[in-house]
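Predict the 3D structure for this chain.
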Amino acid sequence: MAIANHIEKVRQSLREGRFTSEASVSQGILLPALHELGWPVFDTSIVIPEFSVEGRRVDYALCHPENRPSVFIEVKKVGLSEGADRQLFEYAFHLGVPMAILMDGQEWSFYLPGEQGRYDERRVYKLDLLERDISEAKSRLERYLSYSNVCSGAALKAARSDYQNVARVRIIETNLPKAWEGLLKDQDSLLLDLLAEKVEDLCGYKPDLDVCSQFLEMQIQNNKHLDKYEFARKHPVNQTKPFIPATNTIRTRTVDNFSFVFKGKEIPARSAREVMTNLFQLLSQEDSGFLDRFASRKHGKKRRYLARDKRDLYPGRPDLAEQHSVEVVAGWWLGTNYSRRNIQDIIELALEVAGPQLRNATKANVL
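Done. Predicted structure below.
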């Protein structure tokens, strides 16, 4: 199986939440990828699992020559790789290993520990298998991790060249406006919380997250209108009326009636949050592995949508964990401090994990 075919298979399994542990990431993603990249994965003098470094262990050491590490790889569960780079760097520094990789199956971060700067500044490249197209993922894995390139030194040379390439600064500058627009469009729950709490600091009243969501949407529309206004100012045409950018106001919502369809039956609900909660309960009844697979998916920037411990839903915010979580089934907690748009995204992620049969039998839209 070629590396491109393996990547495609992994992408599909990631979407379905099939990798629920570090072991499944290692056996289902990493080792087959190394095999396709030419590594003799059954030769434990070249691909060494649980390599010992002064009493501690790194998950894998890729060696050339035998028993001499050239690359360290640390494996984490999907979505749980953040913060593990410090430990990986300590391992690499002890033995002077030139390249280190931190991966959770979906995200692969390639580092040069010997370079200057903070840990994140020594990252050469971050590959997200669900965000990058297959050709780009294939190219990067071969460039930095193929057996022939590591043995010849070409992988390290390429990584150093990429790290030093000043063109990345221009790329970053070009993408900063896109990143900001993406944050506004994605409306991550942390951004909504920050906005709501800042409003409360200023006036003493905390807005509903849906109001904050509408405000961010309004900012995007206003930016588009301002762009049109700027174009009209620089390129005037004969018109009877001047161009005036549109204004927006935040909508005042009335009480809505909610419902969703599950396996041909319409189920009423009092709120978007109740739609989400009921749907998770029904999906878990239909599929005993659904909650485990959903929990294994990558969730928000810092939060978990679903967890065994409700404190994991809002790291560092025990107040939110107490006020905005619900036990959907025994031993599983679901966060509810989300706008309608966030809730719709969570519902769509749940249906993706549930698989095509249940997805086709469900209609749930809270927007």
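The radius of gyration is 24 Å.
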